[in-house]
Design a protein that fits this description.
This protein is mainly α. The chain has eight helices and no strands.
Length: about 200
């Protein structure tokens, strides 16, 4: 029963997205605002994974929607969903950011009361940051062992936190195809992880 409910919910969302996008293309600002509310989280999670920087991901997410608003009239349904279009914009923005090295490093300096305690906490924070970077790099390198379709599916499902139905809609695939891609990708990642552990 729950699978049927999820299918019906996914179908309603696709219809709602289609109607909302069409209204936004016609110039309805409220429709575009509704699209922003519905899709902002997916775009942000995708960019956060790519940039590893909350502030940069927030800035790029806003820029994605600014560009989407500028070009919404040119959006056409070509077998992929609106979310996939937004993620393509996000991917291109991130690549532009990396290419031009526009990354801004912002350092917040707080008042130091106890320099010894500050040194210990700074060391601890640095170690935690290094562990996070290592984990992120391991996940990223593991994802690049997948083919492009598997990688996109995994990013949407687990980084974008999309349901199989939402992922299928975003990729222009069936739910069965998404489940198959997810299964094969998980097998490939598990095998790669086992090889790395054995080495």
């Amino acid at each position: 029963m729950s699978a049927q409910i999820r299918r019906e919910t996914g179908s309603r969302r696709q219809t709602t997205d289609h109607d909302t996008v069409d209204r936004a293309r016609a110039g309805d600002r409220e429709a575009f605002a509704a699209l922003y509310v519905d899709h902002q989280h997916f775009v942000y999670r995708y960019l956060l994974f790519r940039t590893r920087n909350r502030h940069q991901a927030e800035d790029l997410t806003q820029e994605v929607f600014v560009r989407a608003l500028r070009h919404i009239a040119g959006f056409t349904w070509q077998g992929t969903g609106f979310t996939a279009w937004l993620l393509a914009i996000a991917k291109n923005l991130h690549l532009d950011e990396v290419k031009t090295k526009r990354s801004r490093v912002e350092t917040l300096v707080s008042e130091v009361r106890d320099s010894d305690a500050h040194d210990r906490s700074a060391e601890f924070a640095a170690l935690r940051a290094m562990e996070a970077v290592e984990t992120h790099e391991a996940v990223r390198s593991a994802l690049y062992t997948l083919n492009a379709q598997q990688r996109q599916c995994m990013e949407l499902r687990f980084i974008g936190e999309m349901s199989p139905e939402e992922t299928a809609f975003a990729m222009g695939r069936t739910v069965g195809a998404v489940k198959s891609l997810t299964f094969r990708a998980m097998q490939k990642l598990r095998t790669a992880s086992e090889r790395e552990t054995a080495a």
